[in-house]
Amino acid sequence: MVEQATNSETARVVRGVISREKGAPVELAEIHIPSPGPNDVIVDIQACGVCHTDLAYRDGDITDEYPFLLGHEAAGVVAEVGEEVTHVAVGDFVVLNWRAVCGECRACKRGEPQYCFNTHNASKPMTLADGTVLTPALGIGAFAEATLVHEGQCTKVDPDADPAVAGLLGCGVMAGIGAAINTGGIKRGESVAVIGCGGVGTAAIAGAKLAGASTIIAIDVSDEKLATAREFGATETINSKDLAAADATKGDDDPVVKRVRELTGGFGADVVIDAVGRPETYVQAFYARDLAGRAVLVGVPSPTMKLDIPLLDVFGRGGALKSSWYGDCLPERDFPMLVDLSLQKRLPLEDFVSERIGIDEVEQAFDTMKAGKVLRSVVTL
After folding, report:
1. Is the peptide bond preceding residue 159 cis, with omega within 30 degrees of 0?
2. In this predicted structure, what is the pLDDT of residue 99?
3. Each residue's pLDDT tens digit, 87-100
4. Which CATH architecture has domain 12-170+348-380?
5. SS3 (DSSP) at 352
6. I need a surface site. Which of 5, 79, 345, 374 has the fewest CB within 10 A?
7. Mean pLDDT (the chain, rounded)
8. Where are the domains positioned within the chain?
9. 21-64, pLDDT tens digit by residue?
10. 176-325 CATH fold
11. Which of 227, 170, 221 is nearest to 202 (CA)?
């Protein structure tokens, strides 16, 4: 059911990219932004990356609360603040995040705010011209000239950063880097394998290099993606399409698993990151680990997928099987650090930007993304 907003007070009218119904092409529409609530801010968006999650919203794979205001990997400048805002000020350059920790839930109280179960969002809805309430993607909605968010969704970073680069930390790039550093806990000298070398997997490779991994194995079916993975730090590559009869149900006998072991002294990798999120790739990640190794799932599976691994193997191989939510990041800790490393040329964040597009080119960017031709298309405003 489409909701109608009753509050007619409007601070801004901007252009934004919306999805009206499942699978239909996105469109530009007039977005009405209300005056900020006490802890809300309006951010003028300068750049926003095109993420698989936006496509999932458009296609109804996350929720059916249409219409959506898409976009969430964004950076911009704070334009207006609510009366109780203390976290940011007008003029601050910020990266938006969807983990505005509450400080009060059970995860926060036990000192694990990266798992916050009650993150903050704006207190008022944005709407279409007729009052129809919009659902902002991941509580952000940044394929727009401006958006309304909670102050905690804004993380100040060095204003010298390119908005198109910094904004990518808002989701996919942070998910990959965090899967390696935060969830995987990669240490200097360890071996790492990454299955799937799209944007998230490539970011995991960059994260593994940053953490000091000695052997970094990239696994994909595309030679082009594997070549890109080498540019970001992979020391070895495996094209699983070229291996005869690759079959994850074979477990230890799967050709991908055997090849990973060959590249790691016969033992398997200390950390294996599944950036695909399918049962087949997860089983490969499970068996490609060394004994007591860590498997990290950062690729998002579909609701219908099932996993079948002998429980005795789960027990006998030990180690840890982890899921990585948003790279287990804390935006206030991780965003400024990674932006600084980028500005110091110690982390090639700028290389994730494959193309810069206009706000009216998001639908075409979805097609480019599905074809596997980019790490990230970025809308610039």
Report:
1. no
2. 87
3. 999 999 999 999 88
4. Alpha-Beta Complex (3.90)
5. helix
6. 345
7. 94
8. 12-170+348-380, 176-325
9. 998 999 999 999 999 999 999 999 999 999 999 999 999 988 89
10. Rossmann fold (3.40.50)
11. 227
